[in-house]
Each structure stands twice: as structure tokens, then as C-alpha cells.
Amino acid sequence: MEGLIRKAAAALRRSRFAVALTGAGMSTESGVPDFRGPSGIWTRDPEAEKRAFRSYERFKRNPQEYWVERLTGPPLLGDLAGVAPNPGHLALAELEAAGILKWVITQNIDNLHQRAGSQKVIDYHGNAFKLRCASCTARYEPDDFDLGKMLREGTLPPLCRRCGGVVKSDIVHFHESIPPDVSSLSLEAALTSDVMLVCGTSAVVYPFANLPRLARRHRREGSLPFTLIEVNAEPTPLTEQNISDYLIPGKTGEILPRLASELREKKN
Questions:
Q1: Which structural domain range is residue 189 located in?
Q2: What is the pLDDT of residues 234-262, one digit of tens each?
């Protein structure tokens, strides 16, 4: 284990453009429930999964109905505002502050990377604390609209102040495309990277799971150096298909702080 951490630290120290890809494994260590695990939200409540699959179609068919359901129903992941970043989030923020990590690209919608101090975060599947225009992708804070008043007065949905389009949650729903600005920026970051940390993700949800593969192929075709390091509790398809160079097995909240500590000590 210590040897793998030293190897990862050395690769990051040499890197010119390191990025991290993060998934649900980082959030569950903060107490955010997952969806399909043994005690996941959809495992315990299959009807909630069915509703989630219908959410985007409901938005397109009847935005007002979509918003009434969101504002009157229980939040899918509970009270995310009451969840705190864990040491793994803080370690990635430290790597960014040290100038090593250029981007965090996350599947998670909980805003925990930002709350930990990371500034360069791409919310690949959206952010539960943002709203987004379905037409022009302009983002808004929830407080930019008096949603409670609009619910009472029957004036939902909120409309974009830039283009007049209908505003929805920033979360990317099933059957909804990744927003083009997010897709483009994520791909650019992945293809530019020479070191990629893949943390707490099973690497089976596409198109997110394709980013490491595209990065590996791009660097190989250009005969450019590239190191892909997994920090995961168990092997993933990236491990099994030799996309990653090596796996550091364990919890991200334990491994990433040790990695940051190794880099800190060598710097001093």
C-alpha cells in the first residue's frame, strides 16, 4: 500500500496537468446514500427509481407539474445541506491549492467538493444546489427565483432571464443529455491530462466512464506520457481492462489524505 501511494505521489509530482474523476464512493463516506447499493435508495424503494426514470419526460411534457413535484415531495438524497465534506474531499482541495490538481470532474451532485474548497469542479451530472435553463444552459442559484411564492401563486415554472427558456434543476436526469458546455469542458480536461485519479467510482455509468478510456487512447496515439491511478474499494472495469496503471485499494477518505500527506512531506 505505501509503495503504491509513493508511486502515485511521484506521478502527481511530475504531472503537468492532473485531473481527478470522482464518483459515489466519495459521497457515501460522508453519509450521502447511494442508489443501487445493498441499502441504496432505489434498492429499498424501486418506485423511487421508476419516478426518477420518468422525471425528464415529465419536465418536457409539463414543466409546471415537474416543479410542483420537486417542491412538494421529499428530496431524493435527503438534507444534503447538512452533510459535510470528508477527508477525501479535503485532500483533493489541498492538491488543487498546491497547484497539482487542475480539475475535479465529479458524478456527484452534492456540492461537497466545492464546500471542501475545490474551485475547479465540473459537475458532470449537475449540482443539486443549482438550476439550469434547458435551452441555453444558463445556471442560477435557487434563491434567484422565489419558488415558494411561484408554487403558491401557480406561476411555475421559472423562466430563464437570459433567453426566456424553461428552467429546471441542474441535475441531469435519466434520458437527458449531458449539457454541452459540461461535456466539452470535461473532454478537454480529460484529453489534456497526463495524470488521472479515478476515485470512488465503479466506472460503469456512461458517458462519464468513457473519459478515462478516451484520455488513455488520446495520449497513446500521441505517444504522450499518461498515468491513470484508481483509488477504489475494489477493482473496476478500468482495472480489469488494463485502462488504469494501478489500483490503490481502500476508502478514498483514507487513501487520498495519505497521498496528499506524501506530497506535502516531499515538498518540505
A1: 1-32+85-127+178-268
A2: 999 999 999 999 999 999 999 999 999 99
